[in-house]
Amino acid sequence: MESYGDLVAAEDVLLFVNAAITGTGQREFHGGAAEQQLSLEFLHEYMLVNYRGPYAAALALDINDHNAALIVRRLLESSRDATAEQRHTEGRLIARRLELLPPQRVYRLIGELRRAKVNNRRTRAIVRDWLAARPDQTLDAVKYRAGLKRALRHTHLRPAAAETGDFLYAPRRRSAYQAPLLDAWRRAHHQQSALYELPYTVAEGFARRHGIPRAAFLERIEPRLTGLERLRLQESARAAGATAVTADGAALARMPLTRLASYVLGLPPADRVARRAELTGALRGAARRAVRAAGAEEGGWGRVAAVLDDSWSAYGSGVKRRRPLAAALACHFLLAALAGEYTALWTSGRTDALLARPSGPTPLGRRILDALDTAPQRLVIVSDGWDNAPPGLAAEVLRVWRTRLDPEHRTSVVHLNPVYDAEGFDVRRLAPTVPTAGLRDAEDLPALVEFARFAEGRTDLAELTAHLAARTESFLTAGATGRRPTAEETVR
Amino acid sequence: MTTTPSGPAFRIDLAGLATRPAQVWGGVRLVPLVRAEPIEDLRLHQELYEPEYAAVPAGRRTDYLAYVPHGFVADWTRDGTPAAAYGTRLDAPSAIGATAPPERIRVRAPRRLAKRESRTRLRFLPLHLALEGYLALHFGGPTITWEEWSDRAVRHGLSPRAEEAYAGDRVRGLADALRVFEIHPGQCGLLVYVADALAAAFVVPHPDDYRALHRTLLLDLYGELIHHYALLSAAVPEFRADLRTAGPVNSVAELRTAVAGQERAWADFHDDTMAGGLLDPDYRAREVRRLGRFRLARFLPEFRPKQENHIGEAITDEDGRLAYLKTFRLSESQVRRGHLLDRLAAHEWHLPSAAASLGLTEPQLGLRIEGAGFAGLLRQDILDHYRRAARR
Known about the structure:
The complex is a heterodimer of chains A (492) and B (392).
Chain A: H1 4-22, H2 33-50, H3 52-57, H4 65-77, H5 84-100, H6 103-115, H7 121-133, H8 137-143, H9 145-155, H10 162-169, H11 180-188, H12 200-210, H13 214-221, H14 227-240, H15 249-254, H16 257-266, H17 269-274, H18 276-293, E1 303-308, H19 323-338, E2 341-346, H20 364-373, E3 378-382, H21 393-405, E4 412-417, E5 420-421, E6 426-427, E7 436-438, H22 445-452, H23 461-480, H24 487-491
Parallel strand pairs in A: 1-2, 1-3, 3-4, 4-7
Antiparallel strand pairs in A: 5-6
Helix pairs in contact in A: 1-2, 4-5, 4-6, 5-7, 6-9, 8-9, 16-18, 16-19, 18-19, 20-21
Chain B: E1 9-10, E2 17-19, E3 23-25, E4 28-35, E5 42-48, E6 53-59, E7 62-67, E8 70-76, H1 93-99, E9 107-108, E10 114-118, E11 121-124, H2 128-135, H3 151-156, E12 166-167, H4 174-180, E13 187-194, E14 197-203, H5 207-213, E15 221-222, H6 224-232, H7 252-274, H8 276-279, E16 283-291, E17 294-300, E18 310-316, E19 322-329, H9 332-346, H10 351-358, H11 362-374, H12 380-391
Parallel strand pairs in B: 6-9
Antiparallel strand pairs in B: 1-16, 2-4, 3-4, 4-13, 5-8, 6-7, 8-11, 10-11, 12-15, 13-14, 14-19, 16-17, 17-18, 18-19
Helix pairs in contact in B: 9-11, 10-11, 11-12
């Protein structure tokens, strides 16, 4: 018999997980950045005080990097409140998560810990281990100079090499460095050719200082670009007149699905039409890889219908441009790969997914009705939950469907929401009868659909705790086997 | 020399414009109007002015001065073929700098409130036609020099008359509501409700025009009433669809019928009840211009106190179909002033008969004229006499 308290606890944990998957503290279509940050801060505080175990376990889920960093910081800040056993689990979770975070985020996190004057033994040990596991400290010293300096200073650690120490703290002491990267940095101050040996982000500053024209700089730095930098720069490079910077088909084929969808949506429609075969192929390939990675079977989901939101609010905001639409587009291709028979319904009524653009109202109710007309086994709704033409119709249609037309649950319905609603401390729900889960990357969709069952009806805390424990276990063993995260995972 | 608007009674008819579900943001409710067939041979577009003042000569040594953030330009064709929207003109910053030093305020002088720019183009300042109509209401003052009226009233009429309004960005929540509003395909109009009081109606001929002019609603004027409502009101509730009223549903087809019924119910409720204050009354319209088969007119309400009163301007075609509409909701005191002037004018500015028609005594009417801010119109000794009579 589960108590009322258990129910509340389970709901709170679910709510927090949804928030941690979607909330980034940035401006959204309907809410400002300050609101978002305030709302997230509150949730973190609430979880830490009331449910420390599940709060730490959230690190094992597909939450976003912003919230992962927040959780790590709060756990380390409040070390003294944890029991010895909690500390042990937390330590392993934190270490594993830091491995997966992009280095710049970890350096920023260490900076925040320094500002908050958190420097307990556990924090120092965690930072030490993380720094020791970094593949190349000289690269970090050049690329994240301020971050590394702050981290070493804060934790009283010695740099891996004496030379690196000089480089960070007294760069003029040496007239030459043994490490080629450090020496390139020294020479780049007065020698233009040296800056092309540096990473792009560092070289960019030097190029500016030397007054090198943008096109010439991009042409020569091209071999040093990382895959993502190349992708990000190719449009602006073409505008600047540098033709060498191009992301080839192979690079596209390696990209994760949601990121690829974002990239496609950033292209002008004319380009999308011209490169239709290439882009569609890349998206389909990424979706197939995501399905395999999730351990699902292609075509294993049977008859699937999707209602995808491309209303004007899918634009997101200036800082998260077209993010909700990219999530919907990625889900479209993933579901096409998962489904045996697939129907996609965009809210605008358009049918060409590749040319999706945010516009118009959100007549979710009508579209859900059209989707139910195809008698699907699964109905997936990807939307920010602002159903406005007319408001509340989606909830009513789903209610009538569940109570009058499909009481035997022949169709399973799930709503995935990529946008955090600061006011509600959760993602917006469509209807109480339909489980809603936060969505970050479409790649997590199979896991989310499984997770969403907790949100349907009464949540069983024991079951949820077991699920979290299983996820924690698999998360930690993936790290313990010594598998280095791939570049893709680090990016994510 | 009264400038009473005359002409046939005019009614605002939203035929051809379908009401779509409202979108609510805080205290602001925005109701989109969608045109099945856009009007192709009349196009509106915006003419942006630098923030500056506009002065329009209104008579000898008299200028109409206004702060005009934007103007509209109407393009039409004579033979009914589609008119092209005149594209936004971009000036190089250097060109602007060369003609207008930025540190000074230029006084721009459009020569007329509505000016024909070429044979098929007309430039006009949105809402100013309507406001001018309201301000010029019985502007001339008494037509017969009854002894009660002061010298000044007889010589100069009501001049100068001023009314106050708030710019859209001072109306709390309106900017955000317009920003998050999702424009419907084919949308040609919008009704703005603040705390469920109809603040403004805006209709254009073509969806492309609407898309371009959507944000100009923020540059428009809103009355005192709307500003206060926005400041003080709580969030308004959404009208959520409810299929429980539709009866038992046994198939997807029946569900579809019920959904359509909900959409119709909202449109009917809105047009009959929510917009009733705008659509039901008769207006007095006065034609300002003819534009091919269209006519631009301003209209005034009957000034019924304690009710909704809108002034506005409209472009209609030969069948009375609405191509353009912009309205301004008068505040209660503005309605009272309009009502008072109207009654006085109807009785040739004869105080005793006007008082009788209003069910007042003469001193009461005198004090009401004073209360409306027109004390200067009455002779001082007569006014003192009224005050004494009222005190007794």
